[in-house]
Amino acid sequence: MRLVLVGPPGAGKGTQAALLAGHYKIPHISTGDIFRANLKSGTELGLQAKSYMDKGELVPDSVTNAMVKDRLTHGDTENGFLLDGFPRNVAQAEVLRAFLGERSRPLDAVVEFSIDSNEIIKRLSSRRTCKACGKIFAAHLDKCDACGGELYQRDDDKEDVIARRLEVYAEQTAPIVTFYRGEGLLITISALGDVSAITDNVIRALNSKVN
Ligand code: AMP
Cα separation of 191 and 154, whole Å? Predict the structure, then answer.
C-alpha cells in the first residue's frame, strides 16, 4: 500500500498515520518528524529547516524533495509506505508522481482528513507532544502514557504560528486535494469523532478503493 495523508495541521493526521502504518505494516514517513529529529541532533538539514519551521512556513522544495526521495529509496519502502506531511504543495506532488512513476510504483490512494478551522485552533493550542517518542496528546496529561517521556508544546503550536500554518495550508497545500481528485486517488474522511472510529473509516474506504 502506497499512501499519502493530507489534512490541515490539527486534523489528527499524525495520530492516524501511526495507526494506519501499523495496520498495513508499512513505514510511517513524516517529513515534520524527520525535520524535528534533524533539528534535535543539530544536523545541517535541521539548521536549514529551522527558520522556516519556526515561522510556520514551508521548508524550500529543493531541500524537502531531496530528503523524501532519499527516504523512499530505503529498502523498507519496498512493500509500501505512508507519507504524512508530504506533499505540501502541487510542485511537490508533481515531483512525487514523477519519482514513483519512474519506478512503476504509483500511489494507491490519498486520504484527506476534513475538519473546520475553529476545531483546528482549539485542538492545536491544547496539543502536547512527547519529547522522547513524539506521541501526541490533548493537554491534560503530565507524562507520555507510552514511554513516560516529558510532554511539551511545539513552538509551532503557539497561536501566532498556528495562524500562519493554517494560511499556508489554505494557500499552498489545499490545491493538492484538487490535484489528487483529478488523478482519481482521493478519499475524504471526516476528522471528527473517535480516533479508532476514524481509523476504521479510512481502512474501510481504502479496502473498497484498492481491492
Ligand atoms: P508537520 O509536523 O507536518 O506539521 O510539519 C512541521 C513543519 O515542518 C511545517 O510547518 C514545515 O515548516 C515543515 N514541513 C513538513 N513537511 C513539509 C513539506 N512537505 N514541505 C515543506 N515543509 C515541510
Answer: 21
